[in-house]
Amino acid sequence: MFGVALQIKVEHFKRLVKKPKSTIIGVISQFVLLPAVTCAIAILLRKYITPTIGLGMILVASCPGGNISNFISSLAKGNVALSVSLTAIATLAAIIMTPLNFKIWGEIFLFYMSKINPDFFPKLRIDPVSMFMTVFIILGIPLLAGMWVNRKFPATTEKIVKPIKTLSIVIFGGMVISAFISNYEYFIDYIKYIFIIVLMHNGLALATGFGFSSLLGVGSYDRRSITIETGIQNSALALVLLLVTGIFPEEGIGGMAFIAAWWGIWHILSGLGLASLWSLKPVLKQI
């Protein structure tokens, strides 16, 4: 997040006032529609998935955009300025919206899960203070620190942005490997299901961003960035929340961890694939 914040300036927040339409549509797509649609899909699949897998889908959908969304928007020849603005606004909003969305939609999902087996009603245990502080530490502090460094030391920022992004990918890879090692048997038994679920869920996220922005008349230049921002989620944040805040302790976090970990791998592949297709068809920038 510090690496992402190095590219964020105060001007990116001002976009909400200057050109509010695409920015507002992007935020709604990410923090309102995606969690709601994800909960609906998890409820429809409740006979075929475990409670932890459904909660994992909802947790990922409640997180802000991932730290490679700006890069993928650039490859897709979308509006990079809009992408960075959405990343900045979503990162700040996530301090409140991520815990709130997970609490609301997670409890709705578990309510419907209880209808299948009334004797088994897992409780969603969240320490709201711990979750809020974790999100603030992971997102808020790096955001403010990165913006400050960018503003005070622009020349140094240019030199360290790329190495820090590389380091962040290595760190995330280590988190994914750790999650796999800790739950290896679960991984072997369920990876074929998790692969399909994440494939479907990520496709749904991309379709939500694309469909919502198209419905509201957003041009293709902005629509590409909104689509990518909705489909590229900060799954590393989801993993840290699982490890730090003690979500769902009594049933374990195996399913949730694997959804978050595999999403972190898959959304890079799907995002790069979509960007490659879009890069073949340049669009006129809208003024």
How would you describe this structure to a colleague?
With 287 residues, the chain is mainly α. The chain has helices at residues 2-5, 10-18, 20-44, 51-62, 69-75, 80-116, 128-152, 154-182, 184-215, 220-231, 235-244, 254-279. The mean pLDDT is 81.
Give the arrangement of secondary structure elements.
Elements: H1 2-5, H2 10-18, H3 20-44, H4 51-62, H5 69-75, H6 80-116, H7 128-152, H8 154-182, H9 184-215, H10 220-231, H11 235-244, H12 254-279
Task: Jot down its keywords.
single chain; mainly alpha; globular; about 80% helix; 12 helices; about 290 residues
What sort of overall outline do the alpha carbons produce when their principal axes are compared? globular
Tally of separate domains = 1
Rounded to the nearest angstrom, the distance between the terminal CA atoms is: 30 Å
Unreliable stretches, pLDDT < 50, 5 or more residues? none
- What is the level 1 CATH name? Mainly Alpha
Arithmetic mean of pLDDT: 81
What portion of the residues fall into strands of 2 or more residues?
Answer: under 5%
Brief summary:
The protein is an all-alpha fold and 287 residues long.
